[in-house]
């Protein structure tokens, strides 16, 4: 049995599934996969899973990509190219490359691993940590690996403890008193409760730990099943629950929290509203997610940019920001920001204002424009004088406006205004 003085993570490979579109993010994923969407003023969503792996001590990482992967691949090449083969480290980007069949792309999450079995076997990791690349959280996978070894499980499934009736949109684990999974139910109308916790259910995080040899056996078995959809949650895990030993791992036991983080933090930022809220939450004086925790850094591509700059100091024309995150290369020129995030290279011109908004890299906010509760896609020029977020009827005609009043702004939407 391994002990805490012999990290299991060095014998593990993290395999990140990052091929999904994330269609609920609407036009925000027209040009990029969901894991490549910008987050937190500097990073991409996928950086959380990758940083967790690196901070946990895992030094072999693979990322399976598929849907509109160029933006994601470019980010991975720029920001994650520091792992060194001579130190027994590796970082592989694994697009659907028809390795099994000349006509077959990744058919499901399990197939995205199956098609790269030869690459996994070449590295010969003892354990595999399968991860989703589109969630925001901090977690020490070493603790989950320890539980997997100690319990003798065939698969360990990362789980969130959620209010029972909020679990209807998840895959839910029915467990016994020892957290051994007795049933796996996909999006149940009446989720099973945790023993002794009648109002709480265990929802799957899409994180799985296997011994590599066992996983490969299961993938080959699944590939030979003509009825399978080649999916971990739909096929592989339910089969193991029925024929082997599956154990739940509670996120609360391995969640990484800084001193200021009072509750375990996990977010699926899969809708415009959820994405906006998770970003805006970072502007709180004491945010629920601490990006300034040096003990568990968020690794990402660090652009070479000049410092952010604030200019002009006249009444009505003062470069200022309150409760905001402003990245390098930004110039706030005679304009005001409040409770907003500016990614790198954003410029806001005189007499403009940005409140409760997320402005992605390379945008320009024209003179006199006003933005409220907006998510602005990258590289967009907001025309001078344009007002967004103050007239719900007009906003809904011009942009994608959610029921809660968040406006998503993309370049084609701006172009239609100018016709």
From TrEMBL:
InterPro entries found in the cross-reference section: ADP-Glc_PPase (IPR011831), ADP_Glu_pyroP_CS (IPR005836), GlgC_bac (IPR023049), GlmU/GlgC-like_hexapep (IPR056818), NTP_transferase_dom (IPR005835), Nucleotide-diphossugar_trans (IPR029044), Trimer_LpxA-like_sf (IPR011004)
An example molecular function term from Gene Ontology annotations: glucose-1-phosphate adenylyltransferase activity
Keyword entries, A-Z: ATP-binding, Carbohydrate metabolism, Glycogen biosynthesis, Glycogen metabolism, Nucleotide-binding, Nucleotidyltransferase, Transferase
Catalytic EC class: transferase
EC number: 2.7.7.27
Keyword Nucleotidyltransferase belongs to the record: yes
Domain Glucose-1-phosphate adenylyltransferase/Bifunctional protein GlmU-like C-terminal hexapeptide: 306-409
Catalytic activity: alpha-D-glucose 1-phosphate + ATP + H(+) = ADP-alpha-D-glucose + diphosphate
Residues under site feature: Could play a key role in the communication between the regulatory and the substrate sites: 66, 105
The keyword Nucleus is annotated on this UniProt entry: no
Protein's job: Involved in the biosynthesis of ADP-glucose, a building block required for the elongation reactions to produce glycogen. Catalyzes the reaction between ATP and alpha-D-glucose 1-phosphate (G1P) to produce pyrophosphate and ADP-Glc.
UniProt family annotation: Belongs to the bacterial/plant glucose-1-phosphate adenylyltransferase family.
Complex formation: Homotetramer.
Protein name: Glucose-1-phosphate adenylyltransferase
Gene source species: Sphingobium lactosutens DS20
């Amino acid at each position: 049995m391994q002990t805490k003085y012999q990290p299991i993570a060095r014998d593990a490979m993290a395999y990140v599934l990052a091929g999904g579109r994330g269609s609920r993010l609407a036009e925000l994923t027209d040009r990029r996969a969901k894991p490549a969407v910008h987050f937190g003023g500097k990073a991409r969503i996928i950086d959380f899973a990758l940083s967790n792996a690196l901070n946990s001590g895992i030094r072999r990482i693979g990322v399976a990509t598929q849907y509109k992967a160029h933006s994601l691949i470019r980010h991975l090449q720029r920001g994650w190219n520091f792992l060194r083969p001579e130190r027994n480290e590796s970082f592989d980007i694994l697009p659907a490359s028809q390795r099994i069949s000349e006509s077959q792309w990744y058919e499901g999450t399990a197939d995205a691993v199956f098609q790269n079995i030869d690459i996994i076997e070449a590295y010969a990791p003892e354990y595999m940590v399968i991860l989703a690349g589109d969630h925001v959280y901090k977690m020490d996978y070493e603790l989950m690996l320890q539980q997997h070894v100690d319990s003798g499980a065939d698969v360990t499934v990362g789980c969130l403890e959620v209010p029972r009736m909020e679990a209807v949109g998840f895959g839910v684990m029915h467990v016994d008193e020892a957290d051994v999974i007795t049933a796996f139910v996909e999006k149940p109308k009446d989720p099973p409760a945790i023993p002794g916790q009648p109002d709480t259910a265990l929802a799957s995080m899409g994180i799985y730990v296997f011994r590599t040899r066992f996983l490969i056996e299961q993938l080959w078995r699944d590939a030979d099943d003509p009825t399978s959809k080649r999916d971990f949650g739909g096929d592989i895990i339910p089969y193991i629950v029925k024929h082997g030993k599956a154990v739940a791992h509670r996120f609360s036991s391995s969640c990484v929290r800084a001193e200021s983080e009072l509750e375990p933090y996990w977010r699926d930022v899969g809708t415009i509203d959820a994405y906006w809220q998770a970003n805006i939450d970072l502007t709180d004086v004491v945010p629920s997610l601490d990006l300034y925790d040096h003990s568990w850094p968020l690794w990402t591509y660090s652009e070479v940019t000049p410092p952010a700059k604030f200019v002009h100091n006249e009444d009505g024309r003062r470069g200022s920001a309150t409760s905001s995150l402003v990245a390098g290369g930004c110039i706030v020129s005679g304009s005001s920001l409040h409770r907003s995030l500016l990614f790198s290279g954003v410029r806001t011109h005189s007499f403009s204002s940005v409140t409760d908004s997320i402005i992605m890299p390379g945008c320009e906010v024209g003179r006199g424009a006003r933005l409220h509760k907006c998510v602005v896609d990258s590289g967009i020029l907001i025309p001078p004088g344009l007002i967004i977020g103050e007239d719900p009827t007009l906003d809904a005609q011009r942009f994608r406006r959610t029921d809660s009043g968040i406006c998503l702004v993309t370049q084609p939407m701006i172009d239609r205004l100018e016709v």
